[in-house]
Amino acid sequence: MELVTEPDMKSGLEAASFVKELRLLLRKLETCDGNIQDGSLRVDANISIKKSESGPLGTKTEIKNISGFKFLAKAIDYEIKRHISELENGREIIEETRSFDEKRGITVATRGKSELQDYRFMAEHDLPPLVLYSDSLPP
């Protein structure tokens, strides 16, 4: 099962809290044991910032295979700060896959994405989207 959310989380803490709640739900439904450290629940995070509150999202980077809630929050917060620093120093964000170095507390580039078609989200045509709630339906 793969879940993709809208790009509306603002911090590592918010994302980690969401994944913790999701894990509780998945365990309650008995769809998986939710052990993030063992790999039965894997988390990747896409990071993209706006130059202004009303502007469009910028170029994204993806952090793959984050191995714990604490590291999820730290990886996202580090990458947000890295994006801001790059832009403030006149550099552009490169669309790429990164990993989180837990010992150093930083993300490191692992591969570029700009020329690869494989990285697009591909919907499974045999499975309809599952909408948990929308603006017109209460949660």
Structure write-up:
The structure is a single chain. With 139 residues, this protein is α+β, with helices and mostly antiparallel strands. The protein contains two helices and four strands. The protein has a four-stranded mixed sheet with strand order 1-2-3-4, with helices on one face. α1 packs antiparallel against α2. The chain is globular. The mean pLDDT is 85.
Low-confidence stretches: none
Structural class: alpha+beta
If you compute it from the alpha carbons, what radius of gyration comes out, rounded to the nearest whole angstrom? 16 Å
Strands of the widest sheet, in order across it, are 1-2-3-4
Count of DSSP-assigned helices: 2
Helical proportion?
25-40%
> What is the overall pLDDT average?
85
How many E-type strands? Answer: 4
Overall body shape: globular
Instruction: Report the portion of residues in β strands.
Output: 15-25%
Largest sheet: 4 strands, mixed
What is the element string, with H for helices and E for strands? HEEHEE
What is the end-to-end distance? 21 Å
What key attributes describe this structure?
single chain, 139 residues, alpha+beta, 4 strands
Provide a compact summary of the structure:
The protein has helices at residues 12-28, 69-88; strands at residues 43-47, 61-66, 96-101, 106-112.
